[in-house]
Write a structure and sequence with these properties.
Layout (H helix, E strand, L loop, with lengths): L6 H12 L17 H9 L3 E6 L4 H10 L5 E6 L1
Parallel strand pairs: 1-2
Length: about 80
């Protein structure tokens, strides 16, 4: 499967950075395995996590239930 750029996510990240917010991005299409998201959460220790799911990537849908268990505030968005 060929990855495509998450344009909506990148647009929002750009706006947040311009507003002075520290932003880290995770793209499930480029992850080595389902543990990569948890590793990124440990590394960055965010207060807020925003999930954007476009219903395209089956692997990321399978991992959403595990992502919810992270110890931080989450905002879910998508179509």
């Amino acid at each position: 499967m060929k990855p495509y750029p998450p344009l909506a996510t990148l647009y929002v990240a750009s706006q947040l950075r311009e507003a002075g917010v520290s932003v880290a991005l995770f793209d499930a299409m480029l992850a080595e395995d389902e543990h990569a998201f948890a590793a990124m959460l440990r590394e960055h220790q965010p207060r807020i996590v925003v999930l954007y799911e476009d219903n395209f990537n089956f692997l990321s849908k399978m991992c959403l239930s595990r992502m919810r268990e992270a110890a931080c505030t989450m905002i879910a968005m998508g179509t």
